[in-house]
Fold this sequence. Notes:
Blueprint: H1 9-18, H2 35-48, E1 55-63, E2 66-73, E3 77-88, E4 93-94, E5 101-102, E6 107-111, E7 125-126
Antiparallel strand pairs: 1-2, 2-3, 3-6, 4-5, 6-7
Amino acid sequence: MREPSAVDAWQYTLDLLRGASGPRSPLGSPKDTSRDACAARGKAAARTTPTGHAHLAIVEAWSDSLVSVSWSDPTSGRYSEQPWRLCIARRGGVCALTGAHIRRGDRVFRPLSRKLKSVNDGWAVLASALKPA
């Protein structure tokens, strides 16, 4: 692993946390440190590891189609009371709450879309996982 520099100290820290064994490419241009670039890296991590290091908990059901979720990931951020809405899955995936397989067409809860996308906008929770047994 390489030594940190002033330009890529944050990436070096993330590499250490993830247990990376080899060097990563340097950040390079100032464009790479933009809010959009950081959000894109966070979204990619959230999509690929929905049951990894992140923590998800349902805070409150506001209605049958809207819930409040507490979501946090040590490398990409935290949302205390993020609204998630009921929708139909457009692609397969993994339920962030149970780890069960999500098929296209399943009813799922997802982060409510906004002008600025959240780092966890690729996550989903099966609606059936939230219904009382």
